[in-house]
Please model this.
Amino acid sequence: MTHPLLSVEEVVVDFETRAGKARVLDHVSLEVASGEILGIVGESGCGKSMTALSIMGLVPDPPGKVTSGSIKLEGRELVGLDHESLRRIRGKDIGMIFQEPMTSLNPVFTVGEQIAESIRLHENASPKAAMARAVEMLRSVEIPEPEMRAKAYPHQLSGGMRQRVMIAIALACRPRVLIADEPTTALDATVQAQIFDLLQDLQSEMGTAIILITHDMGAIAELADNVAVMYAGRVVEKGRVETVLSAPEHPYTKGLITCVPHLEPDPPIEREVLMEIPGVVPALTELGVGCAFAPRCAEKIAQCESAKPALRASPDAHLTACWVAEQEAGR
Amino acid sequence: MAELNSPDDLPAVKATHPAREMAVMFFRNYNAVFGLILLIAILLFTFVGPYIHTVDPFEMVWAPFARPGEEGFLFGTDYLGRDILSAMMAGGRVSMAIGLAAALISLIIGVTVGAFAGYYGGWIEELLMRFTEFFQVLPTLLFSMVIVALFGASLLTVTLAIGVVSWTAVARVTRSEFLRIREMEYVAAARSGSAKDGYLIFRVILPNALPPIIVQANLMVGSAILFEAALSFLGLSDPNVMSWGQVIGSNREYILDAGYAVAIPGFAIFLTVLAISLIGDGLNDALNPKLRQR
Amino acid sequence: MSAGSRNSALVVEDLKVHFGGGSSLFGPKPTVHAVDGVSFSVPAGKTFGIVGESGSGKTTTALAIMRLVHITAGRVALGDTPIGELEGEDLRAARRQFQIVFQDPYSSLDPRKRAGEIVREPLDLMQIGTRAEREAKVAELFEQVGLRPEQRVLFPHQFSGGQRQRLGLARALSTEPDLIVCDEPVSALDVAIQAQILNLMARLQRELGLTYLFISHDLGVVQHICDEIAVMYLGQIVEQADRVTLFNNPQHPYTKALLAAVPTVHGNKRDRRNRTRLKGDPPSPVNLPTGCRFASRCPIAEVRCSKVAPPLEDRGDGHKVSCLLV
Model:
């Protein structure tokens, strides 16, 4: 890979909770280049959203704290920057869209005003020029009749339309990185497909780097270039999407792929029993010394419960943190 | 693969009696315990006190306006030379009884009206809410003065008057909670478990609507005590019964010369209201299973 | 005894659920045609799936069959019981035969009641058995859905999402119903937990001979668990077939678009761009078009589509399609 646009290196985030200290991100390293889509998958509570917040400099402090590590945007260190500099970077250099577009939009301003507002926050534009840009943004996210829609309030738009508005706000200042945190969870399948198309277009036309957070392996397969699978605050497997999906090494990745009933064009007549990942994601305050996935893992060996495996390159150039995979590779 | 439907393990389950669990939760809340101690102290003062300090609160025992501490009068004497300590003891019982009874009355009316309006909706709601608004726009003090003037100034009429004018807030809070909770899926689940309306209203929705109602009821005990004080202050309460409001009311003209005669019952009302709201708050938390876990 | 003989089939004929209408202070209220003439039947012991997007009326259909919303017109019968016509005490008594599992395992359990009490509630309300028998039944149900009986004393918030959905299932099973209506039972769960619940539901169906009406927007899940599937759009069924046929040979343009919209692990970036996409959002069920309801978004619509409403016709082998063009 050439020089990454954004790189997250060995980031550790700790939370002080009543139940004790929780390491919500444990030496997470990721990188994304211009015009590339990086997918992050995992169950809730695995640290996907926290990774996004740490990039945005929005880790709630207290109780959270970036304990160590570095996040670089084009070589510029973001960890430890003051609030004002971070605020300028958010929106201008890094944009973010969220799961629920209704609660992320302000109900008392028109969507045009909200897009113009975010332009004026970062650029020296006159109100009129900002509004004209806002209409342009609405047009670029394929909202029909953008002049009219700019005057609409969020509740007057459909869910899909609102998510487009969120994307328009996030992209208003042409950020180089866009973080999309489960952007289509609240949307219908046909609308989800439209939003995904839009993200792909933006990425290829504007060269935006996109970090797509999702639990849907299908979305990863069809959209992302690279994928990182997270579990209990750690990256357990990462690499090119084709390699990870066709030859997953970590049992958790395998589980995530096989436990979901995937749509088959030719379904078998006999129904199969779905493969299960038993149990639930552990509480981060109760992690032991071993691999966090070991209690749910069907393939675990003695080593899994005594030490945490580190990410290790496999022959097809993707990284896996698993003792079993390591053992098999060594054989 | 074997049927892998094993439950994910929870920490060991301890079966404790619900009442015990609630008590534990309540007593872990320092504010609530402080409120409880305060209330017990006030109750002891008003109920046990008169057996120790046996002075008739209506009897002239000394010259008027003995300062607190003077001549052995802990709280001094009022404008008629009556012992304020005795008046405080006797008055506390009445004030608290009026406060609790009036709050109870408004709670019963308010919850009933609000629950039915919120649960049934439609014309029932329209009718009940117009009825509520009617009471809401009445000037409360004036209205209760009319009731007392019509039916005579006895403890009963004063309590009723206070209850009747102060239930509207409870009704509004109850209705809005019912409107929210009746849409919850667990209500639909109970309905498909063949629950009747009464069960849904009182066993499913009401328990979940309680927190804001309890807060409202707390406020009401306090405001009822104050309301009775206001009526006494205006000379509209039962003159033959000593209450804290009565003490304030009868000494109001001498507030500049003998401020203590007004300040002491005022402070007592403040402490009582404080104690009751701290307890109410603690009860509310103890009743909420979500806060009860640790 | 075979599982099928205990159960009775669900029959739904021309079901209509309309909301609103009438007039208010501010003029006439619009009528929402949430469900507008839906017919299907489910053989005992089978799973019938309804898929569709928001506003398609799939959840309203489920609630109408559960008698939780008012039925405007049509017939609903479960075996010999005309559940669509019952009222009052008769309806309450009949509820024993049909139960529901909701989508949101957080709002479908009363937070003030203990898990055991929640599962026992239908038994208490219908006064089935003695108190001791009910307790024993609840303990048995807990085991059946993969919970520990001693967890009965816990409150809902002390369970994880998957466990809460197990509780919802236990509650639905408590009255030993013939039919369980499942309204998006796994949509709110984490992907890894969905499989646990789906396998549990399949096992319970095998063991108890249950009939499921399964509502979902997730085509993968529907394909996995259903025997027969109906695709709904704006209050009507546009296509219905058995699970193999529907996915193998979809006919209606909406079904095709819906299938194309779902990203799968077998897909990749290049294939994705070559699929047909629907434009816009589903129209609102307030102002319904006169002709085919899908015409405004249909990639192959012709002029006549917006004039004539296509009937749902059997194209052989029970594969029903409502489209003038295919």
Chain A touches chain B at residues 18, 273, 275-276, 278-280 (CB under 8 Å). Chain A has two domains: 6-93+175-263+273-330, 94-174.
